[in-house]
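Students often ask why we bother encoding 3D structure as a string. The short answer is that it lets us treat folding as translation between two languages. Here is a chain of 346 residues written in the first language.
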Amino acid sequence: MELEVRHLRALCAIADTGSLHRAARTLGVSQPALTTQLRRIENALGAELFSRGRTGCRPTLLGRAVLSRARPLVDGMSALVSDAKAEVDAARAEGPRLRIGCTASRVIGGWLRRLRLRLPGTDISLRVDVSAHALLRAVGAGRLDVAFVHEVEGCPLAVPEGLEQRVLVDREPQFVSMARDHPAAALPVVDLTDLAADRWMVDPTVDGEWDGLRRVFSAAGVAPAVLHGDYLTAASLVVLGEAVAPCQPTSGPRDDMAIRPLRDDPLGVRLLLVSRPGADTAAVYGELEAAYREAARRVAGYHQWLLRHRSPLLTSTASAEFPVRSDSAESVDRSGPPRRRAESPS
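And here it is in the second language, the structure alphabet:
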């Protein structure tokens, strides 16, 4: 039996509800039919995906691995259907429209809010995808007007010929998230060697993410254990102290998670706005820049980084408007001599 999207959707429903009975109701099928389908899937893979007990169904180790790869596929198929329907609706609608694509980013909400105020009467749609290449192909094919994407350092994107590019941030450093009680969380700046004994979690479906991280590990001479999964799963594991994970520097402080910069910023991405030839992106880019600046000023450590590197995002006017909060617990000043690294956690 070959696995299909409906099979993956069934597995996700069982995991989400924790019960074959409730999953069957969610999927609109009978429990015996779902039980038979699960048994066929497990037979095809050669092992159990869920342990059944009086308290319900829980994913096995293999089940968690399969689910971490299944969820992006199920979400991607749902997005494909939604996008197709949105395209049909947009084609029927009258008036201006703006079709935006974006990889995951902390600035999306502020960007959309600003655009709706800047472009009243414009039908603005949004497509979020883990794959920058998929978004670039959509712009090239005319299915999107613009795409805000990140390019992992050392893993250049294949931008379709003819598309126009504007660089928002030439090099955005990637920070690292860890449990609040992690030994390295006591440090303002963390060395990769401080995390060499940890399990790192990375999403292999994000273009360039795993290759870029592997390159950085090799350059630092470390070889930590790596888990593959989506970043929703990563967040839950990080909070429990089961993993650490790279994250955007615009990620704000959390009560249950510590976010710290890496010494010498070994992980970096370039942020780009890509559009169709001749498209008027002045307003779109301007509001994106403002939204990014707004997100950056909420994280004092990252705002300081931008100031020290003389980022064009932070003009003198912007710096006066968004002063650095030096009393923040997350504030980081790396202009002094390097600090001695902490012992690697056991």
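Translate back mentally: The mean pLDDT is 85. Keep this in mind for the problem set.
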